[in-house]
Amino acid sequence: EPEVTQTPSHQVTQMGQEVILRCVPISNHLYFYWYRQILGQKVEFLVSFYNNEISEKSEIFDDQFSVERPDGSNFTLKIRSTKLEDSAMYFCASSEALAVSYEQYFGPGTRLTVT
Amino acid sequence: LAKTTQPISMDSYEGQEVNITCSHNNIATNDYITWYQQFPSQGPRFIIQGYKTKVTNEVASLFIPADRKSSTLSLPRVSLSDTAVYYCLVGDLHSGGYQKVTFGIGTKLQVIP
């Protein structure tokens, strides 16, 4: 069964450093998403991406965040200058084109720890 | 998205059927009901989606009464591996293609041996 993969599984970084979280969505999917989950809290939507541009972003997704699909397979989330409060699990997800459904396929997540 | 209310936690013994009910009194005509499952330290996983009556797949059943103001996720004969958080969400499937999933707190199901 095809699956979304994410690397690294755990990233430790110092406050103020830039991090790039990587995702490989399912190959025939055209919609891509990033979510985050702070320990013990809800899963929060960050951004959706389609046709090489952002479709929607949340208030969390400020100027410190950016997304990119640098090639035909990877989808990345960059945090330019990390803060302590960015520590969370970051999940990438993808969904099929034109699917009228809430069915998204989530990756296993990257645990980001900012010290 | 319509507001949903579901129990914060539930316990069940292995082998029992578990029913998790979600209230969504303000559901709109075009809204669908979707359930996700999240195991500890993993990403959420889509379980089932429905509009009315009953939907069944290999994982669960979803029961939706005629007024659609609530829905019940039914897990047959749970095992320890069904211990997870279950999220109910209600929303309009707009034609934009992408669907932002808005998660609530969910129901933490603990299956006991």
- Show unreliable segments of chain A: none
- Count of domain modules of chain B: 1
Number of domains of chain A: 1
Q: Output the CATH topology of chain B.
A: Immunoglobulin-like
Sequence of secondary-structure elements of chain A: EEEEEEEEEEE
Helicity level of chain B: under 10%
Give a written overview of the molecule.
The complex is a heterodimer of chains A (115) and B (113). Chain A has one domain: Sandwich (Immunoglobulin-like). With 115 residues, chain A is an all-beta fold. The mean pLDDT of chain A is 93. In chain A, the strands form 2 sheets. In chain A, strands 2, 4, 5, 6, 9, 10 and 11 form a 7-stranded mixed beta sheet that branches. A 4-stranded antiparallel beta sheet of chain A has the order 1-3-8-7, with no helix packed on it. Helix content of chain A is 0%, strand content 52%. In chain A, strand 9 and strand 10 form a beta hairpin. By secondary structure, chain B is an all-beta fold. Chain B has a single domain, classed as Immunoglobulin-like (Sandwich). Chain B is 0% helix and 48% strand. Chain B contains no helices and 9 strands. Chain B has a 5-stranded mixed beta sheet, with no helix packed on it. In chain B, strands 2-7-6-5 form a 4-stranded antiparallel beta sheet, with no helix packed on it. In chain B, strand 5 and strand 6 form a beta hairpin. The mean pLDDT of chain B is 91. Classes of the chains: A mainly beta (115), B mainly beta (113). Chains A and B meet through strand 4, strand 5, strand 9 and strand 10 of A and strand 3, strand 4 and strand 8 of B.
